User: Fold these one by one.
Assistant:
Number 1:
Amino acid sequence: MKVKNTLLGILIIAFAIFGILEVSGAIPPLAHIAGGITYVKIIAGVVLTALFVESLCKRRFCTALFMLAFIFMIFERNIAYIFALNTTNIINNWLLLLFTAIICIGLKLIFPQKFKFIHRIHPYQHLHKHLHQSASHSASTRYKENNLTSSEEYIDCTTFTSRNFENNLGQTIIHFENVSEYVGEGKIYIENNLGNTVINVPRDWRVVTEIENNLGSVKNSGGTGTSGPVLYICGENNLGAIEIKKV
Amino acid sequence: MKVRIEISPDGEDEIIIKCKRMDERVELARTLLDGALGGQGELLLYIGNTEHYIKKDDILFFESTDNKVFAHTSDKMLRTDYKLFELEDIMPSYFVRISKSAIANVKLISSLSRELTGNGVLTFKGTNKQVYFSRAYHRQLKDKIEEVRFLK
């Protein structure tokens, strides 16, 4: 993970230096393509297209829409040139972002959870080979989202098989109740964005984690344990903090 | 206020307060009686398929999650078949709504702290459990705490 982050960092810095050189005129633009297109635009276009495709694959339609909007903003002048429009400013950038956000809100209201379940089951497959993605499993997975607030979540171990949690800019604390009833093999998927998530796991449980950490902190205090029922914790941590506490 | 006791061997025990109108004294009498007697009853709750009979006074709070309502005691989480609005009616008056999804036992609250947004968190005596209350119910909660705990 550290090597990946270092590489990404170097690439971003190289991209910025390249951009500065191009703006200062040290590197000439490709004048013959679509009325003049810079190398920086090409690189940004490729990256955004890749992100657009990835978002579509993960069924993150809002992210995909925003990627499309950014691509349009970058190549607006070239699109106007190709279609021989009189103006190079087809739509105001702020209006474009506003309408994209409105479409996203509309989509979220129509399909409140549909987007989430499908891609969030995938990480379990890496974690646990025999876990298959069946329709019944998708249906039994519960989802909880916390935006900007604090929340305490109590999981009843008598019925617990898998749970999804999303925490955006807030604090989520997860507790397990009726732990003597837990049979093991439970799965928790967490997406923590710029927030703080604490999972209080009973001391005698064995914890298996696979959390993708992007510029955040993942702390597992108390170790993973060697015996006892298994709990799988996986997900993403983007610029936030996840702490697994043994209690 | 007159206090009269009628002994009738038939039927169940019942306390009726007769009054011209609902005022502070009547409300206080109701709260005191409720406090003294209301928590003696038990509630049928479930852990999995096992039935548990839990004293109402031992319940810290009720919380609705994923269309199910759970009662929390200091060490257990039990499912109930009642809806929250039904629990508001059947539980003693010191159980008060603290958010759209929770009802708390005012008698067992040990601390109340508010966040910048106006929402806040309640902690309970003898346990680490806590529950969040919403800004809209804060005034009602404070009034009930004063009424029950300090007999305003």
Note: The radius of gyration of chain A is 22 Å.
Number 2:
Amino acid sequence: MRWAALVLAAFVTAPRAAEFEVVDVVIDTGGRPMAAYQFEVTCDAKLLGVGNGDFDSRAPYHDPAAIQTGRIVVAQYTLAGPPSGKVRVAELHVQHDGKPDYKARIIVVAGPEGERMDATIEVVRRGGN
Amino acid sequence: MHLNLLQLEMVRTGEADADERAHADSCEACRAQLKSLTGFAEALVPRVMVPASVDARVLELVKRAPRIVWWPFAAAASVMLALGVGLYAAREPYAPVYYAKSDVNRDGATDIIDAYLLAKQGASQEQIDAVAKKAVRLGEKS
């Protein structure tokens, strides 16, 4: 019994191991072609990196100073045929010690002529959990 | 050579030059013509005698006519001028709007649209990257 209590105490008091996850940022333009996007994500976790999604083959623009913080502004444009509809524009690599809460907001989304347009944004955990 | 009718008329009215006047004095025929012309001209002018009573009445009416009082107009003009000068001095100073060089579409913000427009215009990748990096720089976005 004594060893069981020790194991339980060790489990409860030990710092939780850092966990990592990749989340997708999805922008929905409602069917209109999107030539450029810029968004901001804040979270109670550490951002480790940014990857491109299905929007463009290049990694999105971001401030390197955002790495290891919980706030980042991400942007990219494309001169190729602009995608439309629900587009996975970027992925964020995150280190956390719990289930982080993500807040995303669109700064600007533009069509092929550079015109601003409305869109929605969401952060999607892979695996849906 | 005698003076023609126009020259004679100019002599009569005093508009002729010295030569024409001298000829009119020395030439018998022209002098006669001038005399005839003068008589004719005088005959055309109506001679109306205005009675002294009418003269007096007209003068009296002129004196009684209301005089234009100018000072209210001058005062109003002065007030308007002062108002104009005051409003001009108190006007909002012209505030020119300056756009950052990176604000390509001049919407007041440097964002990815500016980088996109530069790319469409065929700008160098260096220029495009500079604008895009400025757009995502933390501290400039709240």
Note: Chain A touches chain B at residues 35-38, 40, 61-63, 65-66, 69, 71-77, 79, 107-108, 110, 114, 116 (CB under 8 Å).
Number 3:
Amino acid sequence: MEKVGIVGYNQVKLYSDANYGRYEMIFEAVRGALDMVGLKKKDITTAISCTNDYYEGRTISNCYTVEVGGGYMSDESKVEMDGAYAVLYGLMRILSGNHKLALVWGGSMASCFPYHSTRLYETDPTWERPLAYVNDITAAGFQMRSYMEKFGVSAENIAKIAVKDRKNATKNPLALKESQNPNITIKDVLESEIYADPVTELMVAQPCDGIAALLLAPEKQALKITDNPVWITGVGYSQDAYYLGDRDLSTCKSMELAGKMAFDSAGIRNPREEIDVAELFEAYAHEELIFSEALGLAQKGKGIDIDTNINGDLSINPSGGAIGGNPPCATGLIRIIEAAKQLRGEGNAYQVKGAKKAIASGQIGMCAQNNIVYVLEGSN
Amino acid sequence: MGRQVAIVSAGFSEHASKRSDVSMPELVSEAIEDCLKKVPSISFDNIDAYVNGNMPAFEGANIPELWMTDWMGARNKPLMRVTTGGTTGGSVAIAGYYTVSAGLPGIDTVLAVGFEHQSQGDTSVGLASVAYGEISLYNTLGISYDRLTRIFSAGAAIGVGSYQATNYMRKTKITEEDLARVVVQNRRNAAKTWWAHLKMPNLTIEDVLNTPYLSFPLRYGMVCPASDGACAVLFTTEEKAKDMCDIPVYVNGVASVAHETAVMGYDSSGSGQIDPSEQLGAMKSSELAYSQAGISFPRKEIDYAEVYAPFPNQELMWVEKLGLFEETTAPQMYENGVTALNGELPICCSGGVNSTNAIGASALERPAVSALQIMGKASNQVPKIVHTAIGHGWGGVLNLCTMMVMSDEPQRKWR
């Protein structure tokens, strides 16, 4: 795969109830990404958006965002998954040679809809939905229990991840205020409200309002636009079976396959050694462990043994990850942006020293049924 | 930089207003089965990736691909979902093209699937939410709820469609007979297409004009049905295509240019006074797609066209806007039989969206039928040899447009 440059990006501050409209928010994100490298609307040749009609509460949710999202009179389309897949489509359009500058944006306002109720519409309408015992939270309960039982991991160990992510989020000025807590303890996490045993409130990535935008360009153009582009050198994505009973929830097959595809195209043989920082979309604290093991960053069941703090052995989610704020349709895109910031040394308080190679992931579906992984490299 | 992409097969499910005999995944699997049947050397194992799309709000299932994984053979395979309203199918086709063209490692053969099981939900309610999203704005302007109900619920798409029709009629000075003539041609063509929905072999212009108005000038007999159906198209690389079928159909140009929101957008950002029959987005899309395909004289070089026209006035308008005929001359062409099955430039010989409209599949069926016409395998095959054909899609609030130009010869791209 030819490498493609990330030349600009922007993310708005995440709020649990943003006091301004989604169209203003989209404009702010897109405008900021263009301003970062001094480009204009007319330079965009293709615009890919990422919203979900259910989350927007509106059919054809992209038709009103044409003007604010930079899509007016440009080759435009919408991916209805996570923002990280919109980046994939932008990447494909660049790789095809048809386009020289792709704008990708994604996000929504979770304050305007009941996120977890809406996700009930992802269940099979014949068997699962009428019973309503499977939704994204109870599914995560099954997943966490399955992981704990299989590998003998305790709930305290998983609470540690939530503590780490929430402490990291404190250093990230764009993270959700509700997620930030410098003094949080394992006890706080375990004693917070039970969502679906053993998942507790503070282990859940809280849905919030936010939009993020990103600019992609082919190698030649990227070097003209900026001195310091971040290169996408590998990408992989895969979808697992639908019914939870058909899957081994203690691991993540689709993440394994996505990681393999991404590492193969980036020429990475030993991810544990070569990757300096990982930004993973963990909708629940235990998913961070499951994903890092599926990606080969740790042995199965041993994810907890690695020091994943900001300047630990392998830094995972230095920005706070999805637990630091989960705006539906933007979270995966924000992971890519955070990984790019690390590679450009823009992490400030949560900068990982000497980060050269990073991975970022996105997901959709119950228990992360479909996953996407990017390998990013800095230009220095 | 970018690979040449080819279509090797396309398949359809049977379309009807209520396919209660199947579930949504089963409907999709029917289309995939029909698609793979035509390329015997290909099984699920040979498909490297999937691209999917439908309009989720019409059936009450969000991201239904997750659910239908095993019905498509997509387990442990890459899958991407694209939805853009009426153009969903066209966007799926374009995404299928880009997935192959990008040349990601291990991805050569891609199955693009568009579907809609409308009888599971209520499409008009789903479409009304397109308009109702601005309800607070309309209230601020002093428009009452009961008037809003009349404006929008009167028929979600038909409300905006009739504005477009009257605008077009004013410019071209056509009559209702001209509209009815388009419908008659489509429904008679549909009668010869095995998967079509409204098959009316003996329909006459009088029959159409004897039906009641829904909203002037559109009558009950002129508008598209709401269908259940699915369509699948197989994309692959130039090299692999030659082994899979006799006549690979090369995709030479794609574009989907968006124009401004044609009704009053947020804070009136889309100018409510825009002429919906102007369609700058469609003109720019076709310009872009033709230039990619190296087509300078669309009127001479294109042999067959499938345009997305739920309403007959749109079919007349699109063929002009896409450069197939001079402005305002399309009605004459339909009268003179130029667009008929054995005419010089046959249009919508499958019966078009006017006869079959499973929304998420419709805009994918346009390039699918065009590709089959080039291969000589279409259900209602035109007698002449088709070298170059187009598949078009329309959606959003009249502001989105997709275009795909296909040919039996690969075109080295401009760049």
Note: Residues 265-271 of chain B have pLDDT under 50 and may be disordered.
Number 4:
Amino acid sequence: MDTMTGLFVANACVWLGLCAYIFFVARTQSAVQKRLAQMEALEQNEHE
Amino acid sequence: MRHNSFMLPLVIIAFFAMLASNYCIWLYAPTEQIMGHVQRIFYVHLPLAWWGLISFFTVCVASIAYLKTRKWFWDNLAAAAAELGVLFAVLALVTGMIWGRISWGVWWTWDPRLSTTLVMCFVYAGYLLVRGMGLSRERRGMVSAVLGIIAFIDVPLVFFSARMWRSIHPAVFANKDGGLAPEMLYTLLVALAAMGVVWSIVLCLRTRQLSQLGRLDALAGSREE
């Protein structure tokens, strides 16, 4: 591996790792929103 | 989403911080004379390693605070910090391995700094496994808080390993200015700050998300009863 390839691979790994974690957080957040909406709908149904 | 209003400025701040950091790394910092361009890995490797260590320090502090106050905020903060710490430590190891392959000729060597860092990664990966074991919330909080404090023993070892034992890993800032040219030092400081901004934002978001998840689980549990 030459120096430039190493540098690009290292940077790619960092960005991939960070983006993967942020993607995981974003997906979990959409699941949380979905559950929250279900709970609210359930509560609304009970009130009616 | 209800919190979009405060998320957007944070994302913009993180974006510009990373932009400034990458400008300094790729265009401002001079090329090191002996190692050449590969030395630029240093500007991501060191911030990842340091913020990883700060994450584990946060786990320890939050664990102590949880045991004292029994407030879920501290438990959530410890969990979020542990996740980020493992991510940053693994990325620091990966970037270090690539750098090592080019400058030392090997992917891995059982050097004190590398070995203690690997052990630290395994210990905190274990911490996250314990958290995911499906214990009750109270029990999980208690067990992981104790584990979060004990696990911190390895963190000072990682930091001081290159100074205490014979190590081929350089101890950065072992002397006053770290032997860095001013442009290199400024680049490092900008990279450290940018990584810190990203770390803080993701830590806040994940902590808040974990608290939402906890509340939802508690709500679902009370409905079932």
Note: The longest helix of chain A spans residues 3-47.
